[in-house]
Specification:
2 copies of one chain form a homodimer. Helix content of chain A is 44%, strand content 14%. Chain A contains 15 helices and 12 strands. By secondary structure, chain A is of the alpha/beta class. Chain A folds into 2 domains: 37-194 and 386-408, Rossmann fold, CATH 3.40.50.2000; 207-383, Glycogen Phosphorylase B (Rossmann fold), CATH 3.40.50.2000. Chain A has helices spanning 16-31, 50-64, 78-91, 100-116, 157-167, 207-216, 238-249, 268-276, 292-301, 316-323, 336-339, 352-364, 366-383, 386-403, 405-408, and strands at residues 38-43, 68-73, 123-127, 144-148, 172-175, 188-190, 225-229, 255-260, 284-288, 304-307, 328-331, 347-349. Chain A has a 6-stranded parallel sheet with strand order 2-1-3-4-5-6, covered by helices on one side. In chain A, strands 9-8-7-10-11-12 form a 6-stranded parallel sheet, with helices on both faces. The interface between A and B is large, with 40 and 40 residues.
Chain lengths: 410, 410
């Protein structure tokens, strides 16, 4: 029925062109002992934000390599997501007034969700704080892994203490960076997320595909184009980007596009988007759409891609842009400072002035942009493709095979 | 941990106050043979629209009565939802250009989703056209039920013919009304959805709770208040409501609120909402928020609740308003004309003039509003509570117990 070659279920074989024969075979060997095992990934939204973007291709890749993998999403009320967003922000350094009511709404929603989802898998992977308390509502029969994607370097201590009640019941905690480590009971494992080079957002585009997509949104390419792509969130500092852009325009005529979408688990996004609309003018475009092909086109066509985050668990939009050989200016924080080697494959910045300065430097120097772009792609190829992320999960699951699994196995 | 009595898992026992002892016992008896059986409900969104609102409490109710029930949601691309929305509209009377590309995108998304979801349940219930083709991608081991919530009285024949390829593989098709019947291979069963009287949207509210909620959105109650609550969709005729309201205001000073939210599986909603904003003025308020307590408050405080739909599979917002003893003016279509007995528990209308006329009549006659409201609540109590819907599912599942189940049972 489905004949169009565009509709293909990608598997690890399709990564051979990027990571080579040896790595592909290595990953397949690691998957062997896990054949026919049964995994559940659970998070809080199907759309928007990095986690959903990882889980969409990762769950396919895992199934295709022989591990039956489900993707479960919890359902929450607006109250719940307003609380979990506060938790998210507080884990990244804000403070939160942790009332009993907040705790009760949080736990209650997960109690309801536990009824609607079995947990009879061999491994259960819970992503981020939203579904964390699920573990309280099951007769636990298997390893539970908490995969935390946020920057835990300066969490609100009171909140972390409360969440530890749940975290400490898990069998492992996966954190993105060593500097996010905290005093949890389960062993900590550190690995990055990764991007899928084969999906609509990252696949190769022809020049005409790029132009078509940009024209569809009336985005002009007549002037140098500065782009930031991320959820509308304070930690991404969209206002800072606009200020830096205004400084750039004191010297060079150029355009700015801020593109984001609003995730169902992020109630703040819409408000911030609406506030940003006040900055729109003939040179500044604020766009809220869910269109992966547009992201792809913008990252490929941009003169400079900015990701001026103040906090950033990892920063997949930086990875995506680097993969496309973009010249990237990123905030010197979290995962970004591990991805960008300052001056080699992009620039790290810590202020609005510095952001403006590096943007100007890159706009004025095409050779520098090209050199940095080549280095950027190579770094992503080696370290940040989804195949690495898959391999890390396989290693983690296999470690349970020897350590825990005999106890847990049904 | 959860002490607040507000956080309670409701079960069939909590319906005793509405439907009486005998009915509760009857439902429990019907659940008995299904104890420990395992059901999957699958639809295309967790938020917005009637189906998600039924599944949220129904899945809890089923679990609480002893049937392990999961709620699965498919993940789709914007392309996919743009196509399924066209299909939805075409099933309700529009036409659609059914290209191979549309079919391929539709089937492809479900093929991907089949990888991410097991189907090892005793019964699988697929809601509406979006996830319909899932059945193609499983080794079918149990009864599959297609639950179609849309008005199928005048479907696009070409589209229906294509969808029959999938529908005919199912073991039963549940339609809301006899007049939606079509020539499908599986037997057809007819039953209504129902509302949960215990949820935030429908529970009793004190006067101060109502006023608080309306004030939160600066909705004034100084003048008679006309309200329509529904997704922003052409078939709900929001422009028609505005025209009718303007006619009403030629005679009586009053206010209108159109409240909707945008579901993740409805790409048209946002566009229609934005277009309606042009009509906003000091008397007409267009609101797009997801706030069940606001819906509750509006339906209780409205002088007249309008649901001027041109097509309406069932019309749960009418049921909700009737339950709250509202005076309802509804389009004489689909499920609305079964819910409203014209002149007894509300008015049925077929034009803008008629809508305006009935609104005026109701604003001017408080006794009539109260009488109709009482009759309306009684009709919902007897026929349209979620307990009836549960009972109908139990009957359906039990019919398989004798007819099919031996063949399918693992």
């Amino acid at each position: 029925m489905i004949k169009n070659p565009r509709f293909k279920l990608f598997g690890i074989e399709d990564y051979r062109q990027y990571i080579g024969d040896k790595k592909v075979e290595q990953i397949k060997e690691k998957a062997d002992p896990l054949k026919n095992s049964f995994v559940s990934h659970c998070n809080s939204t199907l759309y928007g934000g990095g986690v959903a973007e990882i889980l969409a291709p990762l769950t396919i890749l895992m199934n295709r390599i022989g591990i039956k993998t489900e993707w479960r999403v919890i359902q929450g009320t607006p109250d719940f997501f307003s609380i979990t967003k506060k938790f998210h922000n507080a884990l990244q350094g804000d403070s939160v007034n942790l009332t009993d009511l907040k705790k009760e709404i949080y736990e209650w929603v997960l109690k309801e969700n536990s009824l609607r989802n079995r947990a009879d898998h061999d491994f259960i992977v819970i992503h981020d704080p939203q579904p964390l308390p699920l573990i309280n509502y099951y007769d636990k029969k298997q390893p539970w892994i908490w995969r935390c994607h946020v920057d835990l370097s300066e969490p609100d201590k009171n909140l972390l203490n409360y969440l530890k009640m749940f975290i400490d019941k898990y069998d492992a905690a996966v954190l993105t960076l060593k500097e996010y480590d905290q005093d949890f009971k389960p062993p900590r494992v550190f690995f990055n997320p990764g991007i899928d080079p084969l999906c609509t957002k990252n696949r190769e585009l022809s020049d005409s595909e790029i132009i078509d997509r940009l024209e569809h949104y009336s985005i002009s390419c007549g002037l140098p184009l500065i782009v930031q792509i991320s959820r509308f969130d304070h930690s991404k500092d969209p206002e800072g980007v606009i200020k830096a852009f205004k400084k750039v325009r004191e010297n060079i005529d150029c355009n700015l596009v801020l593109l984001g979408n609003v995730a169902t688990d992020d109630p703040e996004g819409e408000k911030i988007y609406k506030r940003l609309l006040d900055y729109q003018n003939e040179h500044i475009r604020i766009l809220s759409v869910q269109d992966s092909a547009l992201v792809n086109a913008l990252q490929r066509k941009a003169t400079v891609v900015v990701q001026k985050s103040l906090k950033e668990g990892f920063g997949l939009t930086v990875t995506e842009a680097m993969w496309k050989k973009a010249a990237v200016v990123g905030g010197n924080v979290g995962g970004i400072k591990h991805q960008i080697d300052d001056g080699k494959n992009g620039f790290l910045v810590s202020s609005i002035d510095e952001t403006a300065e590096k943007i100007v430097k890159l706009i004025e120097d095409e050779n520098l942009r090209e050199e940095m772009g080549r280095n950027a792609r190579e770094k992503v190829r080696k370290k940040y493709l989804l195949s690495s992320c898959l391999e890390n999960y396989l290693d983690l699951f296999n470690s349970f095979e020897t350590i825990y699994r005999l106890d847990y196995k049904k």
